[in-house]
Amino acid sequence: MKFNKKDLKTLTKIIASRRDVRGNNFINKEISSKKLKIILKSALNAPSVGYSQPWKFIIIDKNKKDEIFKHFTDSFEKSKKDFIDKPLYNKLKLEGIKESNINIAVYYKKSNSKVLGQTFMKRTGEYSVVCAILNMWLTSRALNIGMGWVSILKPKKIDKILDVNRDKYKFIAYLCLGYTKEFYNEPELKKLKWNKKKSLKDSFLK
N or C, which end of the chain has less CB nearby within 10 Å? Predict the structure, then answer.
């Protein structure tokens, strides 16, 4: 299969339009099971070390959502001490756990046997899961569905809430998906001047 310039233009536009969506932008509209399946199936096409496909998903129910939201709130309060020099941090909305329609926990399934490609770089299995998450993010955007990655969480606490065996699985991400009021024309943290966008030149190791 070959692609053309139009395909590249569309892909480039989707990548450039991807956003980390927070609770102040989600709206009360359900994602159909058909579209959720499209998003999840896109993860299955991600590259994975040794074709291990080590990703596992958990769709979060309302009761678990409430528990995880409480944990996030506690964690966010504790994290404020690390950004005392940046007052803006206290005002940021950094999750959409309750506002989003669907929450998904993503795990890495640890292997009990040798995996091709992991002989010296053990964490490539986890990186494979991150590739799957990016597929989901871009597919969601192509469907005009927002996605946010909540990272102010303690993996041990999430495992306990979700009753996941830490010996078999490793927590990688907590995702919030839902329709949005809008998609910002540039990343929110860039708009708020939290940080500047790097140029291609700045991205090279010197």
Answer: N
Residues 26 and 180: beta-carbon distance below 8 Å: yes
The answer to whether the CB of 148 falls within 8 A of the CB of 100 is: yes
Total-model pTM: 0.95
CB contact at 8 A, 113 and 30: no
Task: Identify which of 95, 107, 103 has the alpha carbon closest to the alpha carbon of residue 151.
Answer: 95
The answer to whether 56 touches 107, Cβ cutoff 8 Å, is yes
Q: Are 42 and 136 in contact (CB under 8 A)?
A: yes
Distance CA 150, CA 105 (A): 10
Q: Which residue has the tokens 């020099």?
A: 85
Work out the number of other CB atoms within 10 angstroms of the CB of residue 56: 16
Phi-psi label, residue 68: left if phi above 0, alpha if psi -120 to 50, beta otherwise: alpha
Spatial separation of the C-alpha atoms in residues 17 and 13, rounded to whole Å: 6
Q: What distance in Å separates the CA atoms of residue 21 and residue 146, rounded to the nearest whole number?
A: 6
d(CA 115, CA 125): 9
